[in-house]
Amino acid sequence: MFETVTPPEPDKIIRLMGMFAADPRADKVDLGVGVYRSPEGKTPVMAAVKAAERAIWERQETKGYVALTGDPGFLDAMRRLVLGDAVPAARVAGAGTPGGTGAVRQVLETVRRLRPDATVWISDPTWPNHPAIIDHLGQARRTYRYYDAATGGIDRDGMMADLAGVAAGDVILLHGCCHNPTGGDLTRGDWEAVAGLCQRTGAIPFVDMAYQGFGAGLEADAEGVRVLAAALPEVLIAASCSKNFGLYRERVGAVLIVTGEGRAQAAAQGVLAGMNRQNFAFPPDHGARVVQDILSDDALGAMWREELEGMRRVMEGNRAALAAALREATGSDRFGFLGAHRGMFSLIGASPAQVETLRETHGIYLVGDGRMNVAGLTAAAIPRVARAVAEVLA
Ligand code: LMR
Question: Which family does it belong to (predicted)?
Answer without folding.
Answer: Belongs to the class-I pyridoxal-phosphate-dependent aminotransferase family.
